[in-house]
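INFO  loader      accepted 1 record
INFO  loader      residues=211
INFO  predictor   begin
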Amino acid sequence: MQLSYAEIWKGIENLAESKGLSLSGLAVKAGLDPTSFNRSKRIGADGRKRWPSTESMSKLLQATNTTIFEFMELAGEPYRPKAQIIPLLGLAKAGREGYFDSDGYPLGSESWDGIEFPLTLNIPVYALEVSGNSMEPAYRDGDKLVVSPDSEIRKGDRVVVKVKTGEVMVKELIYRSARQIQLKSLNPAHSDILLDARDMIWMARVIWVSQ
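INFO  predictor   done
INFO  writer      dumping tokens
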């Protein structure tokens, strides 16, 4: 998928109109700051163009039940799918030996399945399939989380974390320092976690959710 700066913002504006929402209303519906899509926010103080983040776009499409193909149409660029095949693994298997290296990159491709992803990315990505209801309401059984080991991680991002016990978990990053990592559970029935940074093996960012 290749959309220009102008096409992306056109798609957002047309999506808001199609849903009978203002740009602020669309942002709130997606769980974002009400000013996220305002025209005044599209150029930075240094004059550079500001693009919506991948996480913002993912939340936007999920909240409006819009597929990437539908968004392409709204942006004025009909999409001719050229899917990328990315590795897929059940999240329940992710803590077992042999699936990841020490930096969180997939190992042993013959033991992974594959899934079509409608974007062609220039960074390593893989997908983890959710099973069960332990992460509801954020993620449900069968959801596929597209994960990027190379993406920058910031406060508020949803992340996959592997710890020294072998457990692999999906949480929201609250705070990270050289000594401690605080993680928020996606299911309100579960407590948040405070980790000693030395107990973490790797952390990778969830950049997309395929339902």
